[in-house]
């Protein structure tokens, strides 16, 4: 295990990173939560529980962290929240869309256990919020901004006056694979991801100082959203172009077409290690499938 604290915005915002260390992992991933004026955004993974407890205790518990908002139900974001509630009585908030996913908790597959902890997502009573979230001192007021696609419930929060946004997993570092395949609860819809990013870009028009905090990435600006929008547009165009070519060349079977497109789009082809380890939950094939499901003229 490892932890790291990263300050942003002159120390007004702290990112708390946590990662697992295991011999089974050849590719390390960290999960994050962000703290701004007593508001914690997300709560890291179930495996981070003990470390997060130490960190919150050191800060002063509920005196320091007065509330926690979850951007979506995934375990690497909601995992620490049952402990925050139980040990510190910190209220946990989320969009009404997120609440039902967490009321019973859930189990997840082996590879997610190696990254995010063995015990699965414990149930947690989350309080639904619709209106603005005001931070402890009253300095920041965040409105909820739905950004579905990565998960159906994903909700970003934005303080337009101070030009700060927390978007969870609504933006990824690079689009080279998606969740999906045999796991309907983790399915990512690339057209929705794209539309959500376009909406965020549009409503933040003119906010030249906007700072966007992205889980698994860190701090980015509006140019980064523009870059991702372009990246997805190119992937979309290419997937359809290659599909057309393959059909013209006599390819009929969809699984074969997907496989060939993956080979054409990425020099190294499919991420076999990832695909096998995740039992198909993560793959380039999933990304191509969701790109093709999205009509070109839309
Ligand atoms: Zn997620």
TrEMBL record:
<dbReference type="GO" id="GO:0004416">
    <property type="term" value="F:hydroxyacylglutathione hydrolase activity"/>
</dbReference>
<protein>
    <submittedName>
        <fullName>MBL fold metallo-hydrolase</fullName>
    </submittedName>
</protein>
<dbReference type="Pfam" id="PF00753">
    <property type="entry name" value="Lactamase_B"/>
</dbReference>
<feature type="domain" description="Metallo-beta-lactamase">
    <location>
        <begin position="30"/>
        <end position="216"/>
    </location>
</feature>
<dbReference type="InterPro" id="IPR001279">
    <property type="entry name" value="Metallo-B-lactamas"/>
</dbReference>
<dbReference type="InterPro" id="IPR050855">
    <property type="entry name" value="NDM-1-like"/>
</dbReference>
<dbReference type="InterPro" id="IPR036866">
    <property type="entry name" value="RibonucZ/Hydroxyglut_hydro"/>
</dbReference>
């Amino acid at each position: 295990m490892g932890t790291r604290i990263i300050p942003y915005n002159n120390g007004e915002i702290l990112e708390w990173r946590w990662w697992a260390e295991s011999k089974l992992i050849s590719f390390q991933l960290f999960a994050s939560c962000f703290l701004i004026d007593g508001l914690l955004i997300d709560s890291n993974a179930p495996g981070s529980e003990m470390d997060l407890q130490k960190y919150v205790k050191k800060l002063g518990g509920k005196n320091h962290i007065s509330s926690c908002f979850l951007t979506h139900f995934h375990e690497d974001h909601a995992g620490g929240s049952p402990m925050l509630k139980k040990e510190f009585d910190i209220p946990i908030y989320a969009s009404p869309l997120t609440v039902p996913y967490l009321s019973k908790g859930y189990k997840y597959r082996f590879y997610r256990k190696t990254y995010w902890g063995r015990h699965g997502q414990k149930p947690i009573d989350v309080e639904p919020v619709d209106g603005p979230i005001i931070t402890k001192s009253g300095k920041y007021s965040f409105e909820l901004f739905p950004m579905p696609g990565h998960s159906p419930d994903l909700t970003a929060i934005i303080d337009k006056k101070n030009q700060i946004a927390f978007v969870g997993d609504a933006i990824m570092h690079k689009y080279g694979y998606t969740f999906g395949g045999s796991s309907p609860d983790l399915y990512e819809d690339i057209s929705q991801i794209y539309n959500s990013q376009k909406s965020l870009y549009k409503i933040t028009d003119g906010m030249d100082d906007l700072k966007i905090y992205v889980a698994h990435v860190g701090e980015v600006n509006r140019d980064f959203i523009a870059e991702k929008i372009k990246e997805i547009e190119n992937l979309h165009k290419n997937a359809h172009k290659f599909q057309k070519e393959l059909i013209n060349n006599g390819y009929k079977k969809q699984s074969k077409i997907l496989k060939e497109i993956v080979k054409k789009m990425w020099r190294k082809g499919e991420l076999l290690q990832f695909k096998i380890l995740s039992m198909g939950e993560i793959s380039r094939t999933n990304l191509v499938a969701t790109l093709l499901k999205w009509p070109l003229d839309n």
